From TrEMBL:
A Pfam family hit: HTH_34
Gene3D superfamilies (UniProt xref): Winged helix-like DNA-binding domain superfamily/Winged helix DNA-binding domain
Protein name listed in UniProt: Transcriptional regulator SlyA
Organism name: Sulfuracidifex tepidarius
Residue span, HTH marR-type domain: 1-107
UniProt-recorded Gene Ontology molecular function terms: DNA-binding transcription factor activity
InterPro entries for the chain: ArsR-like_HTH, HTH_MarR-typ, WH-like_DNA-bd_sf, WH_DNA-bd_dom, WH_DNA-bd_sf
Length: 107
């Protein structure tokens, strides 16, 4: 690994957003599905409604997701990952892979 490479990896992976497993889980779920309902995310993540709601609000304020309501019978909240959110989580996965390779080189 090039000089400074591990420092770059550690700096990126140490960003506060990645300390929240719920935030990372939401972004990972959405990058594959592109869109999900509130209840689908709750089922996948196994978190309370209040935790999910607060986390979604935070991610939306950060511009990483967009939520909207569909009115078919009962209103249903849908969540979609933004381009910024998809880029962030894909970069996160790339840095994890780089770190895995770094560890592999060390063993």
């Amino acid at each position: 690994m090039e000089k400074g490479g591990i420092r770059e990896i550690i700096d990126f992976l140490s960003r506060p957003i990645f300390a929240s497993t719920t935030k990372v889980g939401i972004l990972l779920a959405l990058v594959g599905a592109k869109e999900a309902s509130f209840s689908e995310l709750q089922d996948v993540l196994g978190v309370s409604k209040s935790t999910l709601s607060l986390t979604l609000d935070s991610l939306e304020e950060e511009g990483l997701i967009k939520s909207f309501t569909i009115f078919e019978g009962r209103p249903k909240k849908r969540i979609r990952i933004t381009e910024e959110g998809a880029n962030l989580i894909m970069t996160y996965l790339e840095y994890l892979e780089r770190y895995r390779e770094f560890l592999k080189e060390k063993s």
